[in-house]
């Protein structure tokens, strides 16, 4: 099972567990994580969800080998929820979501921070939003949520450059709340999650709804724009070159491609 689920003290811990693939999301993991969030939302014994990764990565984002098959194989079978369904579950999740970034975080591994109510990060972890290096557009309403967290210019650099951010950079940008030593990460994240979980669920839900409901229109509009741009660019010359380069273990060469 690529997603481990553990309940303790009204905190449900979801651990992405594909360490050999750096916890990259394939369709099965998208489905499992979406199902777990939907179940936690309805479970009266769960007050808080804590999301983290197993091994040296938090998540390497979408599984690019599967993404390549998806873009080239007309018979590829998509999941029940897939990436859009996971986003739907994140947007609608009514309880506090605590994220503990234990290692490298790319793509959705980074953009999920836009939906975190509290985010903790290991001092040795790094973030990257690699969309321009893949020849595609942003995702997960990051074009709307990241400027709110980081400010326009920091968000522009993160989304346009496809460069790595250190934990200190992520903290300075407001993408995470606390940075800890690697061995202290889960204890610190769990301490805060369990403190929240001692509060009444009804109050937690009311506070989160008041904070997030005004953002729904902006999130929906951003997702629509991002999805349209992603659909236009995916399978295009730049994206195919990026995916081919990944499969061949080389750097992509975008020079000479049409603008």
UniProtKB/TrEMBL annotation:
Superkingdom per UniProt = Bacteria
What is the top EC class of this enzyme, as a single word? lyase
Enzyme nomenclature, EC number: 4.2.1.17
InterPro entries xref list: ClpP/crotonase-like_dom_sf (IPR029045), ECH/Chromodomain_protein (IPR051053), Enoyl-CoA_hydra/iso (IPR001753)
Alphabetically ordered keywords of this record: Isomerase, Lyase, Membrane, Peroxisome, Transmembrane, Transmembrane helix
Q: Give the primary localization class.
A: other
Keyword tRNA-binding present in the record's keywords: the answer is no
Q: Does the keyword Isomerase apply?
A: yes
The subcellular location is: Peroxisome
| Gene Ontology molecular function: any one | delta(3)-delta(2)-enoyl-CoA isomerase activity
Can you tell me where the transmembrane regions are? 97-120
- Pfam families to which the protein is assigned, alphabetical: ECH_1
Name the record gives this protein: 2,3-dehydroadipyl-CoA hydratase
Q: What is the lineage of its organism?
A: Bacteria, Bacillati, Actinomycetota, Actinomycetes, Propionibacteriales
- State which gene encodes it: paaF_3
């Amino acid at each position: 099972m690529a997603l481990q689920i553990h309940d303790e003290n009204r905190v449900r811990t979801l651990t992405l567990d594909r360490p050999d693939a750096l916890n990259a999301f394939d369709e099965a993991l998208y489905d499992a994580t979406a199902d777990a969030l939907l179940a936690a939302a309805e479970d009266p014994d769960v007050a808080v969800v804590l999301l983290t990764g197993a091994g040296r990565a938090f998540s390497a984002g979408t599984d690019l080998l599967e993404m390549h098959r998806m873009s080239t194989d007309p018979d590829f079978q998509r999941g029940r929820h897939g990436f859009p369904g996971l986003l739907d579950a994140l947007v609608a999740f009514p309880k506090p979501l605590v994220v503990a970034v234990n290692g490298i975080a790319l793509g959705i591994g980074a953009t999920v921070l836009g939906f975190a109510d509290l985010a903790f990060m290991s001092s040795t972890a790094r973030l990257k939003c690699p969309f321009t290096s893949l020849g595609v557009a942003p995702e997960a309403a990051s074009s709307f949520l990241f400027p709110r967290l980081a400010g326009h210019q920091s968000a522009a650099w993160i989304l346009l450059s496809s460069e790595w951010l250190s934990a200190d950079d992520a903290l300075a940008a407001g993408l995470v709340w606390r940075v800890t030593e690697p061995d202290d990460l889960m204890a610190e994240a769990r301490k805060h999650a369990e403190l929240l979980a001692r509060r009444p669920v009804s109050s937690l839900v009311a506070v989160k709804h008041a904070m997030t409901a005004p953002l729904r229109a902006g999130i929906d509009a951003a997702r629509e724009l991002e999805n349209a741009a992603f659909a236009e660019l995916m399978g295009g010359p730049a994206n195919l070159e990026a995916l081919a380069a990944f499969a061949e273990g080389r750097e992509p060469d975008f020079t000479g491609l049409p603008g």
